[in-house]
Design goal:
The protein is 77% helix and 0% strand. The protein has 130 residues and is mainly α. It has a single domain, classed as Up-down Bundle (de novo design (two linked rop proteins)). Helix 1 packs antiparallel against helix 2. The protein starts with 13 loop residues before the first helix and ends with a helix.
Length: 130
């Protein structure tokens, strides 16, 4: 998508695309966990990573700016939950510290994009209200 392209759908959002890549990476991680973690930690990782993209999409589809902002905040909460699950994976030796650092950097990058999207949504709300 170019800078001139209008955003007509949540799939046009750079933050959603970045979160989608994050979800892919964390699903791979969940698949690699030991069998006894498949329903516990792996399930939590899958739900949290899917929640990030789903909340961004749902917020985009909401009627008002405030509802969109709230869904962004929920996505951010799921993102931080995911980072905590990643810490558990590193602590338990399921992933190397280097891989944990790479995935955490990806999550932090999505968090920065999400925070920017949230700021722009709230700024747009202010402009419309003025």
């Amino acid at each position: 998508m170019t800078a001139e392209s209008p955003i007509k759908d949540f799939k046009d959002l750079h933050v959603w695309e970045a979160a989608r890549e994050l979800r892919r990476e964390f699903y791979k991680l969940a698949k690699s966990l030991p069998d006894f973690e498949k329903f516990g930690l792996a399930g939590q990782i899958r739900r949290a990573s899917a929640s990030v993209t789903a909340n961004i999409a749902e917020g985009f589809g909401r009627f008002g700016y405030q509802e969109n902002a709230q869904m962004c905040r929920q996505a951010r909460g799921s993102l931080y939950e995911l980072r905590d699950h990643l810490t558990t994976c590193v602590d338990e030796g399921y992933v190397s510290p280097a891989e944990g650092k790479r995935l955490d950097a990806l999550a932090q990058s999505v968090a920065r994009l999400l925070n920017g999207y949230l700021r722009s949504t709230l700024a747009l709300k202010q402009r419309v209200a003025s």
